[in-house]
Amino acid sequence: MTDNEHEIEQPDDRVPKRVIGTPPPGTSMLGEAEARDAGVTGGETPGITLQDEQKARRAEKLVALCFLITFLAGIAFLVSYVVFQVGDPDATGTSNLALGSSLTVAVLAMAVGIVVWVRQIMPKYALVQERHEMVSGEDAREVVADTFVEGANESGFVKGKMMRRTLLLAAAPLGLIPLILLRDLDNTKMKATNFNKLLRHTVWGEKTEDGRPLRLVVEGTGQPIRAADFNSPGGILSIVPEGYEHDMNVLAKATLILIKFRPEELKSGVNKNWTHDGIVAYSKICTHVGCPAALYEQTTHHILCPCHQSTFDAADGAKVIFGPAARPLPQLPITVDNEGYLVAAGDFPVPVGPSYWERGDAEAEARAKGGQA
Amino acid sequence: MVRITAWRRHPLARYAVLILALALVGTAYATFVQVSRPADAALASGKADDVARGKSLFQAHCASCHGLNAQGTSTGPTLIGVGAAAVDFQMSTGRMPAADPGAQVPRKPLPSWVDSNSISDIAAYVQSLGGGPTVPSGEQVDPALGDAAKGGELFRANCIQCHNWAGAGGALTRGKYAPNLNESSPTQIYEAMVTGPQAMPVFNDTTITPEEKRNMIAYIVQVREQRDPGGFGLGRIGPVTEGLVAWIVGILALVLAAIWITAKKRQKS
Amino acid sequence: MSELTTVPKAIGGPSNWLDERLGGGNFLKRNMRKIFPDHWSFLLGEIALYSFIILLLTGTFLTFWFQPSMEHVIYNGSYAPLQGVGMSAAYASSLEISFDVRGGLLIRQMHHWAALLFVAGMMAHMLRVFFTGAYRKPREINWIIGILLLTLALAEGLTGYSLPDDLLSGAGLRITEGVAISLPLVGTYITFFLFGGEYPGTDIIARFYSLHILLIPGILLALISAHMVLMWVQKHTQMAGKGRTNQNVVGAPFYPAFMAKAGAYFLFTLGVVAGLATFAQINPIWIYGPYTPADISAGSQPDWYMGFLEGSLRIMPAWEINMFGTAHAGTLPLSVIIPALVPLGIVMTGLALYPFLERWITGDNREHHIAERPRNNPHRTSIGMAGIAFYGVLWLLGANDEISAFFHINLNWTTYAGRVLVFAAPVLAYIITYRICLGLQRSDAEVLSHGVESGVIKRLPHGEFIEVHTPPADDIEAHMRGKQPVPMLPVAEDPSGIPPKGMRGPIGKLRARMSKAYGGEKIPLESGHGHEEDEHAAIGPGEDHTASR
């Protein structure tokens, strides 16, 4: 139905010869695409039109050439597989290039060959087939309806009221079985209504085996931090809890960003009792959908979440100043132990991370208890 | 009405409309983009010993924003205590002297008076004012001496949230951005970490040790120099360019193939 | 070579054996020469079909090495910058496929490119079907199957994207969790059941793996087969043209021409996928690093087909409601629920219902086998373009950080612009498309009544210059005359001023109003006499009563 010739040819008697420099007839008004759409059977003879013998023979050579290229490229693939080994990015890159390009050439050459074959050797078809309405005939429908009624009566399903009802009854629990079997998908071995209680706490509220509060350690090195060492205003560190450096479930809730401020930069949103010498710890888990929000700008004190661009003001209790997050990043109370290392002074006052149904207004709850959220 | 219709049918009309549309898009784009002008022409350089030469260069080129004694003004921060590393970073990347007080000062070609001598002179002067981080030695930033795998873990923990996993850079708030790291020399990367230029936070040597910094530099350099084994890297920014390629190259190529397969040559009568 | 006169023994023997057992001869007799109409846009769906086949083949290859396990291992494979780094077994085995299996990287990349083309092909095909009205009776069932396929493809993409357990896919998983847990009432339950406890747990990769390689592809395969069978039974639509009617189908026979073309197109798809996998790197997981919930990269993005969801999350303002204050219930994070569910809901439900809404409004109960030109149903085309604009804005905003970084546009402005455009762009697209459609219809009518500019200038005896117009070619004229008015409900009031039954209530009145706006002939092809091939042009508004209630 398409036409790859841009020019629409018309019988000579209809169209005067084109004047050079003017648009070809048809194209300017009809546009190319339409002309193609319209190419239907315009210049085509309906039925089967055989190809010109001579042209077909020429085309056959072309097709054979294509298939030969496929053969050679296929061989090249096999050879490349043996010759090129993988390993470092360089070797792998060479292997990928050799295997991939030989496969591409092999496949595309065969595709081109087949298209030439169809277009220039097979006859041109413009065959017509009748369509019939999808609906079945009136008599067929009647027969089906009669058969259905007859069968329903024969089976006794209509009369057997008791049987019908007990069958329905029997089906109900069967339908529930696949659902109920999914209950143990959760491995916590706890009542489902208690799931949300897990979300309220992080390990920062726990103590080490010898009863010390958990130290803040640097993510990636595992080193604890002396408050006196973290002394450059504008500094930031990604922090994980001591002893849980590789525990994914813990990291998903307890990861912190630790920011060092000049004391005068802190605004009222920050709970100063929970800071130490201008060092503030916020949850790194965004309150929107839980990405680690850690793009910190030391000039503006913005914390930006890269996923959905929620922006928090770190100098003002990480309150939301832009984007879809609805709540500030929770602040973790921190202090120093007797060796001068930063430790958690307790758990977050509110649940960290994304909101969920059972969360409630935890900030208001914390405030009511006397703390600051 | 008749005239408008005639105009619309003019052979040039479609080009006129196209050009108009392009111009509109271009203008709209231009208004969004922060324009950066090249730096002013350079001035002559001074002479004397390091600090003194540095001071005179400073007063000629920097004092208008940072104050005659580097105490800072309303347009530029104080430089007392920022250290030689900050001066070396800002000037060797062409960010200082700044051309335009935009949301962020971009990396740009160095003005002609800025070379390693004039930078080290000014750095010496600023260092003399109130100390601060110094320029690292060549050994401190040698990627060959670092452990790339260990550096990679720190890089992912502290850097990629702004600079992207391959150091391709990314957007920050209100027109600011984290630049890509491909042009940064190991020394500049080190200096940026210890001084925290512009919006970037500081990673001081007492919390991330110089050795750990060298590991990170080793990772950055190794990954940026490594070949993309799967073909063109598409900017190494992930699914955005991949999606574009899937549509623009993949679907377009297949549509062209479909047009060729179904095309019919008209038979001439 | 001489031509065949009988079936060769090598084929005839086995065929005979099979026919004696299956009786397939009757089927083949009727179907070997089944006619398939030819148009390039009819091949768009085949992109998706062939991509699916490529996905099955490459995916099977990948399963031979991939370990769907979140067990913590220390990497000691070939990729130096990660040696000695702790990671999950899934990530380590994905690295092994990339760097330690010959052809592994190629196949992995082909799998990913084919996945992108699979969804892209589906979407392009769906738009073609929509804009040509090919979903109309009797093809509504196939349209619904198509919508199901698209939805499943998104789920299949999401589960596959998460499997390598790299830092990028983990970010996607985290967002999935954040969305799931935000759902009212059931959020925590769904999350705990899905992840086997708290996020991320140690089960999710294995669970997504079974969904990704077994359940979803199984359903996809079944639905794709049904899609093909229905297409086969109902015969493909065709474009209007000379000799083509609603009662016939004109084209090439399945055997041998269409079969060869389809085979060639499969090879083209495979070639494009292989070429992309050779020359364009996709999902370089070794650069991303292993997943940890503590880290994230700038520019973390989903694959393109999830981009519109990402965009809608990004432009949402911060709305959250605590319905019962501090009670431990009743938190509604609207800034997650609305963007995660509403745009997807609008697009998918709108698409699924469109054939039925259109039928309800137009009262059109006839079978349609001629694909409509988009211009000839301007309201449908405009609604489609408005949908594309809506989707497009969200999609674009899904990449607003990359746009901001690349073009140096203020990130916050892109969000503000998105918040306006998501409402303004569809309206604009609607109005502009509607005008363009009418303009094109007018130009068709002009071509038919005045002919085509020939480019020949004639000087008349009295000195006036005119351009000679020439009638359009037969086939083009036939194509244009395939236009039919959009059907309308019979809304005429009877002599006593009472509207027809079913049009009296408020809904009925609305229906009648919408029908009047949607249907009818806006720009008649020509006034006056009809044309011999234009048999349907006589069916004007109000003549089709079959569907009126």
From TrEMBL, chain A:
InterPro entries: QcrA_N, Rieske_2Fe-2S, Rieske_2Fe-2S_sf, Rieske_Fe-S_prot. It is found in: Cell membrane. PROSITE patterns: RIESKE. SUPFAM superfamilies: ISP domain. The chain crosses the membrane at residues 62-84, 96-118, 166-182. Belongs to the Rieske iron-sulfur protein family. This is Cytochrome bc1 complex Rieske iron-sulfur subunit. It comes from Nonomuraea corallina. The lineage of its organism: Bacteria, Bacillati, Actinomycetota, Actinomycetes, Streptosporangiales.
Automatic annotation (TrEMBL), chain B:
It is a multi-pass membrane protein. Keywords: Cell membrane, Electron transport, Heme, Iron, Membrane, Metal-binding, Repeat, Respiratory chain, Translocase, Transmembrane, Transmembrane helix, Transport. It is found in: Cell membrane. Its main location: membrane. PROSITE patterns: CYTC. This is Cytochrome bc1 complex cytochrome c subunit. InterPro entries: bc1_cytC-su, Cyt_c-like_dom, Cyt_c-like_dom_sf, Cytochrome_c_Oxidase_Subunit. Its EC number is 7.1.1.8. The cytochrome bc1 complex is composed of a cytochrome b (QcrB), the Rieske iron-sulfur protein (QcrA) and a diheme cytochrome c (QcrC) subunit. Residues 49-130, 146-224 form the Cytochrome c domain. It catalyses: a quinol + 2 Fe(III)-[cytochrome c](out) = a quinone + 2 Fe(II)-[cytochrome c](out) + 2 H(+)(out). It holds the Pfam family Cytochrome_CBB3. The chain crosses the membrane at residues 244-263.
TrEMBL record, chain C:
PROSITE patterns: CYTB_NTER (PS51002). It catalyses: a quinol + 2 Fe(III)-[cytochrome c](out) = a quinone + 2 Fe(II)-[cytochrome c](out) + 2 H(+)(out). PANTHER family: CYTOCHROME B. This is Cytochrome bc1 complex cytochrome b subunit. Residues 520-549 are annotated as: Disordered. The keyword ATP-binding does not apply. The keyword Transmembrane applies. Residues 528-549 have a biased composition (Basic and acidic residues). Its EC number is 7.1.1.8. Keywords: Membrane, Transmembrane, Transmembrane helix.
